[in-house]
C-alpha cells in the first residue's frame, strides 16, 4: 500500500500552490503512514492517514495525538483535514510527509514551561575524616600580654552525619603580678544529619531556635529538626515573575529584565510560560522579544514585583526545637538551665502572593504563640503583619507588628513598627533583655547614576523602665569612575541636640590591589582625621599590608603598620600599633588541618565542603576546578581541593597532556558532590603502563609493511596495527613478551623482554619477525 501511494502524483490540498488533477470518482481509499510536521515543527511521529478522493483524511485518534481539540467527533470517524476551519495541508507523496498548519485555537497544547530548574536533588557523598580549623592570636605591650587560640573540630563519614565542636583557650598576663593566667571554654558541640531528598536536617546538641521577623532566637542544648533549603540549592523557594504567551510557529525567545538579558532560547508551537531567573527583587519591567521562524519580531512588555520574603505556593519552611536554654555562653562550658523548653516556627506559601507564618514557644511557666502573614500588593510593594500573645505566671501580654516595603532599581522605602502591651514575655526574656516596648523604623533611599546614592532613616526604641531613644541619620555616596569614591553620613540623637556625629570619607583606587582611604569624623564634639593605605591580599594568595595613621583633637595621634601573607596552607599576619608611650605588637595565624584518605593536609580555613582528589600513586598532576587550576597532587598522588559548594556539582578535571607518557587516564572529568561541612573523595583512574615502540623487520631486514594486525600473546585486548617503518606501539607489556603479526604473506612473531630504562616509552628493536608455518 505504502509503495503504491509513493508512486501517485502529489495532490494539492489547502495551502498548496499547484492544483492536482481531479481524481476519479471510483478511486479507492488509500491508507498512508506519514511523517507529520505541525506548524513548521517536526513532530517525530509517523501516523496513519487515508487518501480519499484526492483529499487527506484522519481519524479522531490521529488528530488527538497531534493535540487537535475536536469535541464531539466519534472515535474512528474520518475527517478531511482541509475541512477543519483554518487548517492548511501540504502533502508530499514523494517524501511521504504532510505539513499541517493549524490555528492555536484548534489545538489543545500544554504550556511549555521555560526557565524553571527541575533538577532532582543530587546524591552527595562524604568519606571518613577529621578536620581542625584553628585561629591563633597574640599581642604584647609594655604592660600586658595575652594569647588566644580558637579551634573547630569536625568528624564525618558516610551516613554518620557531621559532629562539630568549637572551643577557645585564653592566656593573659599583666604587670600587676607578672603571672600568666588562662582558661578554656567550650562553645558549641553538635551532631547533624541531613536528608536532601526531603530538605530536612536534624541536629542534636548545641543549637538555636528558628525565628521569624517578629520573634527572637535563643541558644539551646537539645534537638532541632526542620526544613533546610540549602540541601537542594538548585531549587527556587520564592515566587518568581512568570511571563505568558503563545506562538503559532517555533520561535526564539529573549527575556530582558530592567534592560539586562536574563534568558535566550527556543520555544515550540503553542502556549508557553517563561519563569524568570532567581535573584530578582523589587519592582521592575520586563521585555519579551519573540522572533518566529519567518523572522518576524514581536516585543511584549510586563511590569512586575518580586520579593524574597515570600514562599512559593505550596512550599513550607518550619523548624521544631526542644531542650534546655544555654546560659553564660562564651564564659562557661557547660552552663544550662534546668527547665525544659520548646519552640516551633512555620512559614507556608498559601499562594505566590500570600505567605502565612506561625510561631509557638513555651516552658518554665511560659506559653507564647503568634501568627503573621506577608502579602504582596503587586507593584505596590509588600506588607507584613503579626500578632503574638504570652502568658507567664498569670501575667499576660501581647505583641503586634506591621511593616511595609517597596523598592525598584532607583528607589526604596521600608517602614515598620512593633509594640508590646501589658506584660508580654518570650523565652529570651527570662535569660536576657526583655523585648522593646516600642520599636519604630523608617528608611528611604534613592539612587541616581548622575548624583549618587542618598538615604535617610529614623529609629525609635523604648525598653521597659527606660525612656525612648530616637535617632535620625542620612547618608550620601558616589563613585567617580572606577578609582574615586566619596561618602558622607550624619547621625543625630533627636533627644540630645549635642549628640551628633559626622563622617566624610574619600577612597582612591591606586591599582595593583592598592587603595588609599582618608576620612574626617566628628563624634561627641571630638574631631578625628584618618589616613589608611593598604594592599589587599589576592584570592590566589600572596602579600598584603596596611599603614594607618590618625590624629584626634587635642593632639593624640595613633599609628598602625601590619603585613600578612596568604598561602596554600593558611594565613599569617603581624603588626605594631599604638601611640606615643603606649605601643604593642601583635601576630596571628589561621588555617586548617584535614585527615582523610590516609594523609594529612594543611590548608587555609575550611568553612564549607571540600574534596580529596586521588590520582593513584602519580604525583605532580595538575587538577582544575571549574576550568581553573587549583593545585597539583602531592607525593602520594593526593590533593585537597577547597572550597567546594555543598550539595552541588563541582567539576574537577585533569588534562591528559599533563600526565606522563607512560600512563593511561580513564575519565578526564568528574563531579564532586559533597555534603555540607564534610569532604568527599574523587578518584581519577590513572594507571601506569609499560609502554614501548617495537620496531619490526622481516627476514630480509626490511621494515614490515604498515597495516598488519599485531597482538601480544595471551592478551587479546592489546590488539593493534603495524605503523609506518614497521613500528608498533604497545602499552600492556610484561617482563617477557611474544608479539604476533598478521601480514599479507602470513603470520610471524617476535620475542623480546621489556628493558630496564628511565625512558618512559623505550624503543625496542629492530626485531626480526620470524615467519610461522601455516597450520
TrEMBL record:
Residues 695-755 form the PapC-like C-terminal domain. It comes from the Bacteria. One of its GO terms (cellular component) is cell outer membrane. One of its GO terms (biological process) is pilus assembly. It comes from Lysobacter arseniciresistens ZS79. This is PapC-like C-terminal domain-containing protein. InterPro entries: Fimb_usher (IPR000015), FimD_plug_dom (IPR042186), PapC-like_C (IPR025949), PapC-like_C_sf (IPR043142). GO terms for molecular function: fimbrial usher porin activity.
